[in-house]
Amino acid sequence: MDYKAAYEKEHIKCADLAGRIAELEEKNEELNYKINRIKTNPIWKMSAPFRKAMHYCIRQRDRLRNCGNLRGIWAKIKYKGRERAAMERYGTASFPDEERRRVEQETIFPHMVKFSILVPLYNTPREFLTAMLDSVINQTYGNWELCLADGSDEAHNYVGQICLEYQKGDKACTGGEGRIVYKKLEKNEGISGNTNRCLAMATGEYIGLFDHDDIIHPSVLYEYAKVINEQGADYIYCDETTFKNNDINKMLTMHFKPDYAIDNLRANNYICHFTVFYRHLLDGNELFRTKFDGSQDHDMILRLTDKAKKVVHVPKLMYYWRSHSGSVASGIQAKTYAVDAAKGAVADHLRKHGFEHFKITSTRAFETIFKISYQIVGNPKISIIIANKDHEPDLRRCISSIMEKSTYDNFEIIVVENNSETAEIQKYYEELKQNEKVKIITYHGPFNYSAINNLGAEKAEGEYLLLLNNDTQVITVNWMEELLMYAQRDDVGAVGAKLYYGDKTIQHAGVVLGLGAHRTAGHSHYMQHRENLGYMGRLCYTQNVSAVTGACLMVSKELFEKAGGLEESFAVSLNDVDFCIKLREMGYLNVFTPFAELFHFESASRGLDDKGEKAERYNEESARFREKWKEVLAKGDPYYNPNFSLDRSDFSLRVE
Q1: Which ranges constitute the DSSP H helices of 448-489?
Q2: What share of the chain is helix, strand, coil (3-state, %, to 5)?
C-alpha cells in the first residue's frame, strides 16, 4: 500500500473541505450583514404592524385549511361553542367553597408530605407576582414552602420588596418562621440557573415547579398529597389552561391530558405543568440542565419520569398558564431556540434508551410537536393477512396498491379465502397464484374474523404479522416501515395506521375504551377531515392508545402467539380491541401512528352491523366484551381524559 499517496489524497480532501467551510462561513457572514441591514432599515421597522397583521391572517387561513372543508369548519365552530360553555366550570367556579375549603384544610393524611414550590423570579410584573404569591398562600393544604430565587435587575427592586412583605405576612399568619424563603441573586442565571438556586433552598420531600407569572388552583396541593398517600405517587401532574387579561376565567386553550404515555411525551411535552416530584428522583443530579435552556422542563420531565415508580396524572384543571407577550404560552415564535433545545432533549433521552439511529423532525401541528423516525433493524419479513370472500374489485384494489406503492419489499401476502361464490374472484385467485409473494389458503366454515386471521397467522412465514382488511388501499408508500419501526420495539405490542373513508374523512385514528353508545370502544376523531390537526395536535404525532383497529394492525408473530391470537368467540366485532387489551395487560404499549395512511372503504365486504341479525350479534358481543373487561372499562381509558364526553369522538367536554 502506498501510504504516502493515501496521505496526500486525504490531505487534499481535508484541504477541499476546509476551503468549502471557509466559503460557507463567508456566505453566512454576508447573509447576516444583509439581514441586519434590513432589520435596521426604517421602512422595515415602520412595516412591523402590517407584517404582524399579515402573519395573523396567515395563521387564520391555516386554521381554516386545517379544518379541511366547510363541514369541518362548522364542526370546529360548534366544538368551540361547547368548549366556551364548559369553561365556566373550570375557572374560579371550580374553587372550593367555604365548606369544602374547611374540609380540605382539616384533612390529616397518614403522610403529611412537605412540598417545596420553586419559583425563579426575573423582572416579574407587579400584578403577575402578587397573583402568583396569592395562589400559593391560598392553598387549602398547608404543609408547603415557597422558594424564591430573584435574578431581577436594579430597575425591578420592587420584586424583592413584595416578596419580603409576603414573607413577613406569612410569618405573622403562621406564628412561626414562615413558609416563604427568598434569596436575591447576585446575577440573573436564566430559568435553569435560577431554578437550581431555588432547589438549593428547598427542604421539602416533594418539589413543585411553578412559573413566576402563573397561577395554581387552591386545591392542587391537597389533590397531590392525596394521590401521594393513596397511590404512592412519586411524579404528579394535572390538566392546565392558558388565560389572558389577568383573569383565569378568560381561558384561551384548555389542555386535558392523557395519563403517562411515553410516546406522547417523546413527541411533545404534553405533561408540562404543574409538575411535582419526589426529591430523591433527582439522585444528586441537576434539576434543569442549562444546555437545554428553552426546553429545560421537557428534558427534566423525560429524565424524572424515566426514574419514577408511579407517575400519576390528576385529571383536573389546576394550573393557569398566563399568556402574554414574551411567554411561551403566547406562541413558540417568542422563543424559537426552544425548538432546537426540545429536539436535543428528546435525542438525549432516546440515546439513553438504546436508540442510536433516529430522526426527529417538526410536524405541521407545531414546531415542538415531533415525528420520531426509528431505524428499522435488519430486513424482517412481514406477513400481510387478508380475509376475503368474493368482492374481487376490493381485493384487487387492495393488493395492487400494496404491490405498486410499497417501498418495503420483504413481505408476503396471505389471502384467507372464506366461502367465495363468484367466478370473478376465482379467476383473480388464479392470477394471484402467479405471484410468488402471494399465497391463498382456505378457511372452511362460517365467517369468523378471528379464526380466519388466526389461520393466516399459523401459515405465516414472517416475523411480523400485518392484519389488513380487503377493503383498504395504501396511500403512504412507506406505510410498512412506519408500522414496523414501532412493532420492532421491545415495549410495543400492536401498531395501527391512520385510515380514511373515500371522502378523506377519518375512519380510524386510535381506539378509545368506553367510547360510543355501547360503552365498549370507539374511534377517536371519527369523521374529521384528513387535514385536521386533531385535539392538541394529536392527529400529527405517534402516540400510545389503548387499542387500534384490526383493519390495519401490525404485531410481531411471537407476541401474537404469546397473547393467544384473536379471541374466536368475538367472531366479527371487538376482537381487535380485545386483543389489544390482552397485550396491554401483558405490559406492552399499543401505538397509533398517523404517518402510515390508507383508505378504508369500511364494511364494503360484509355490510354494517346496525340491522336485524347482525345487530343482535353485535349487541351480544358487546355485552360479552363489557363483562370480560368490566374492571378495565371501569377504570376508564388512560389515554382519554375523563373530562371528555364518551358520547362524542371529537374530544368534546362532558356535559355536567
Answers
A1: 449-459, 479-487
A2: 45, 20, 35
CA angle 35, 36, 38 (to 5 degrees): 65
Residue 540 belongs to domain spanning:
382-635
Q: In this structure, what CATH number is given to the domain that contains residue 468?
A: 3.90.550.10
Regarding whether 499 and 412 lie in a shared domain, the answer is: yes
Number of separate domains in the chain: 2
Question: Domain ends where: 264, 295, 330?
Answer: 330
pLDDT digits (tens, 9 = 90+) for 430-443: 999 999 999 999 99
Does 386 share its domain with 326?
no
- Based on the fold, state whether residues 302 and 386 are members of the same structural domain: no
The secondary structure of 601-653 as a DSSP string is: -TTTTT--SSSHHHHHHHHHHHHHHHHHTHHHHHH--TTS-TTB-SS-SS-PB
Residue 487 located in a structural domain = yes
- Which contiguous run of DSSP H or E holds residue 352? helix 337-352
**Rounded distance between C-alpha atoms, residue 167 and residue 161, angstroms:** 10
Separation of alpha carbons 538 and 547, rounded Å = 15
Residue 348 to residues 124, 358, 361, Cα–Cα distance (Å): 32, 11, 15
Shortest CA distance to 207 belongs to which of 134, 96, 281? 281
Distance, CA of 268 to CA of 342 (rounded, Å): 8
**Per residue in 564-607, pLDDT tens?**
999 999 999 999 999 999 999 999 999 999 999 999 997 544 44
Radius of gyration of the chain (CA): 29
User: Cβ neighbours of residue 463 under 8 Å, at least 6 residues apart?
Assistant: 380, 381, 382, 556, 557, 558
Question: What's the confidence (pLDDT) of residue 63?
Answer: 59
pTM, to two decimals = 0.87
